[in-house]
Design brief:
By secondary structure, the protein is mainly α. It has 22 helices and five strands.
Amino acid sequence: MADNHPDSAQKVIIPRRLDPEDAQLALQQLQSILKRQEVVEALARREYEEEDRSNLLEGLLHRQHENEIRAIINDLHPSDIAFILESLPVQERQAVWQLVGAEHDADVLLEIEDWARESLIQSMDHEDLVAAAEHMDADEIADLAPDLPPDVIAEVQKGLTEQERAQLLEAMGYPEGTVGAIMDFEMVRVREDVSLEVVLRYLRRLHELPDHTDQIFVVDREDRLRGTLPVSVLLVSEPESLVSDVMQTEYLSLNPLDSDTDAAGAFERYDLVSAPVTDDLGRLIGRVTIDEVVDVIQEDSQEQELSRAGLQEEDIFAPVKAALRNRAPWLLVNLITAATASLVASRFEDTVSQIVILAFLMSIVAGIGGNSGNQTMTMVIRAMAMGRITVSNIWQLVKREILVTFLVGFCGSLVAAVFAWAFSGSVSVALVMMAAIIGNMLIGAVLGVLIPMLRARFGKDPAVGSSVLLTFATDSLGFFLFLSLATLFLL
């Protein structure tokens, strides 16, 4: 029996949920469309006899492909759009970017990685850049300021209020890597002498609360921070209570010149969602929120991973020349270090020629030492990032690593000695192998502590190229130690 209720014919709307797999699927669909477009253009270039007809067909198919791309890309979250653009070569990235709706421009530019943002900005004209920047807050404009043309920044400033212009100039004045560079200015502040009912009425008059508002900041008439009022406390307390009666006076506050990495560590330690930023006089000037902190943590993690190989972040679709400039320097250093290790081994040519099995075993000694040193160095770099290593405990750490490495090396060298004895049939070769492995692992452990510490001492990134330097030391000294022992005790 049919249902004649008027609501029965209404379409059921299923809310769309965010899912990273949607972006992966959309990327595959876009790549398929772009491939079809490439085939169409290739075929059109071969059609000489029916040129007009070919151009018409190519134009129709091109518009069809563009409509398909628009339908896919503009239905995604700005973060997913940014992911797709980062995953495309430069020319395709710029072509798809032209099809992204103008309402997404600002959000995508803020979400996309720095190395991909440059190519998008290059493809935008002056008016589009101004329109996108006009939808951003002062702190967001400051984030993009290094990549935007000066004339765009100047025009955007004209449309800001005096307060927003002052905030923009202030945010642009803080160095990269500081709290001031990631703080925002949107926050709710109240006085301590008003009731919670007044605070609630004030909040209801706002169009919306700033993102990640988990607490309200309590200030005096000079904007000095007096305490914080958690939203959870506000909602469950009696409306007649004064703010001063329920506010929290124990809170973490940041200085705009603090390191953003230190701030990220504080957020992790105290499970924060937001934290106030105060100047040297205790005045509230901004706040840091968890979304910015997550970005800092992710960027630091990516930089450390790249730095250990001597790399900087690069566009994976960048021209070959750009990739060469990024990768060649440390590869040349690695080549020099490898040549040095080979030179050390060549000094023991007579020893190796008389006991050929040494040529096969010495690579094990070098490899084990390098792996041991890398384990130590990874632990040290992580501890340095967390602020757990100081001048007073560095030698205690060195002694601990020596002891741990000796015990691990002793056990591992026993296995290696059995292996060497099985292949050579000589107990003497096995004992030399055992001693060399323990010695090179100890060298790797000591250098795994000292290399990042010395680089930090001289103001360098502890992670940049440390693995290359460590490999050089363990290879060269490992060859030297093993072949020296062999020369002394086997010949």
